[in-house]
Amino acid sequence: MSTKLTDSNTLFLEGNTKFYVPKNSLIQTPPPRTPVFFNTMAKFKRNLLISIFNSYASQSSHKLTFSDTLSGVGATGLRLANESNYVQKIYFNDANVNVSELLQKSINYNNLDSSTEVSINEANKFLSNFTNRDTRFDFIDLDPFGSPIQYIDSAVRSLKINGVISLTATDGAVLCGVYPKVCLRKYGSISLNTEYFNETALRILLFSLASISSHYELGIKPLFCHTDKHYIQAYVQITDSISDTEGKIGFLGHCSTCQNRVISELPILSCNLCSSDNKIAGPIWTGNIFDKSFLNIAINNTDDSNLLKLYENALFESSLPPLYYVTDNISKNLKISSFPVETILLKLKENNFLSSKTILHSTGFRTNANIEEINSLLSKISTSNI
């Protein structure tokens, strides 16, 4: 909601924070980049970042520095400065020269001058000013238009050991398999368009981060990942142990004939169930995309019911294998009516398989059963209902 108008901008309320935004960003879809970018639809994403930041910071002995690296109007950093008790200093940066005046008005309005600093610079140049050991950030947000790949190296070098990168990609068509050759060029990995396309995209993004971090003998530990229609996002801790990455890079093999999927260190060219040719994606991150310990911390540090449900559901699936299944796709392939996810989970449990819903798809589920075993169980349910 907006509460006060000026000639070209409005004082806007989100969360517990008011800040100035251009009027046209509230009435145009998609929001324009000029004069300064602001996306009202990203409120949940900002709520999530503040929650992740607070959960991470709650385990630290000191307050944290935060880089709002591609800040636009500064909505993320302003809300964090105003709504978190764990902030030492927020650094805002954007290459758009129009940012400075509008952002300073918001800083003044919220009395945040002592805990903020504003820079107008290209993101890599900005980050390069913080590569010395005593100036590195505790938490960096990278949320560009399109791919974040061109900023990752600079971000890794300007982050403290065990600091966190919030990494967002909006080039979904590239990461999700529509343009696999472009993905190979940008991310060093071949993408694949399957029903679990967004998980493949996440794992490619994590692979790229792991690969760049390994140049500096650093490892990665994903804390929490999620996707939306418009973006792929990962919150990842950068560690001083390359062993956190070793053994967690591999390939995906997907059988178009029977829909079997397999994760392996090296590409597996044929399906181990029906012997058809596999389609290959990768390299990808094959390790966990959720950290159990961190999820428990996040659950204990939020009173937002939507976030709490998201964390709890992620916790349920965190121990299950990569690459979820989608109920509608399975039913379509079997030429039977679709079943509610809950029905499938119950049947899997009755047959001693592990299973859980996934936060990555509304009708998706994870299980340690393979596609043959799933098909067999669903066929029996369908037959019994006739």
Indicate the topology.
Blueprint: E1 2-5, E2 9-14, E3 17-22, H1 24-27, H2 43-57, E4 64-68, H3 75-83, E5 87-94, H4 99-109, E6 116-120, H5 123-128, E7 137-142, H6 149-157, E8 159-169, H7 172-175, H8 180-187, H9 197-214, E9 219-227, E10 232-239, E11 249-255, E12 261-264, E13 278-285, H10 292-300, H11 305-317, E14 325-326, H12 327-334, H13 341-350, E15 355-357, E16 364-367, H14 371-384
Parallel strand pairs: 4-5, 4-7, 5-6, 7-8
Antiparallel strand pairs: 1-2, 2-3, 8-10, 9-10, 11-12, 11-13, 14-16, 15-16
The structural domain count equals 2
Number of helices: 14
Number of strands: 16
CATH topology of the largest domain: Rossmann fold
Mean pLDDT level:
94
> Which regions have little confidence, pLDDT < 50, spanning 5+ residues?
1-5
Proper CATH architecture of the largest domain: 3-Layer(aba) Sandwich
Shape: globular
Helix percentage: 25-40%
What strand line-up does the widest sheet have? 6-5-4-7-8-10-9
> For the record, what CATH class of the largest domain applies?
Alpha Beta
Largest sheet: 7 strands, mixed
Distance between the termini: 53 Å
Q: Which range does the strand content fall in?
A: 15-25%
CATH superfamily of the largest domain: Vaccinia Virus protein VP39
Helix and strand content put the structural class at alpha/beta
